[in-house]
Amino acid sequence: MKKLKGLKHIFSFTYGPDPECHVINNSLSLGPLFYDGAGEAMLIRFVTDINYNPENIKDAAEKAKLILGSLGLFPKSFRIISCPTCGRCRIDLATIAHQVGRKLKELEERLRKDNKNPEDVGGITVAVMGCNVNGPREAAAADIGIAGRRNNTGILFKNGKVVKTVPEERLVQELVLHTEELINQRFKSGIRH
């Protein structure tokens, strides 16, 4: 797609009582504009019935960065990709993806306390896939990932290659553990991926 040239615009990111809904709406309306190069900045606009307090301001900024980061316009420490699910899905993908998101946020906070910014070494792409049939191949570009498997198990994979089989209840824990090892290896080697 051809990038727009010329005038750049400041677009409003609307933040209100249902932040998740606003992320979806803003992604659909602002994402294409920024992707095409029409946007220069994002102004956060609070709807009238939302409390204008530091917690909401921080959350709104995080949501705006999420949109820009998904377009590659803002450095991200962790990028989570997932499949849309199909009949082969062997795990509760939505629940696990949310757990992974929370645990990676905690990992990011721990790393930052140690003065390690994951985006400084290129960040990590994490895949959460529904099945081991297509999962590792579809997410081969991911640095690390998990995929559901029969008999309440799943697999952990790195760069599209299966590393090990894990009981389903430990999938998130193993993924976060191996993600932390991977990011620490990158910091030791000093290589930006």
Characterize the structure shown.
This protein has about 190 residues and is an alpha/beta fold. The chain folds into two domains: about 60 residues, no CATH class; about 110 residues, 2-Layer Sandwich (Sulfite Reductase Hemoprotein, domain 1). About 40% of the residues lie in helices and about 25% in strands. The chain contains five helices and seven strands, in the order βαβαβαβαβββα. The strands form two sheets. Strands 3-4-5-6-7 form a five-stranded mixed sheet. The chain has a two-stranded parallel ribbon with strand order 1-2. Helix 3 links the parallel strand 3 and strand 4. Helix 3 runs parallel beside helix 5. The longest helix has 21 residues. It is globular and about 50 Å long. The two termini are about 25 Å apart. The model has no long low-confidence stretch (mean pLDDT about 85).
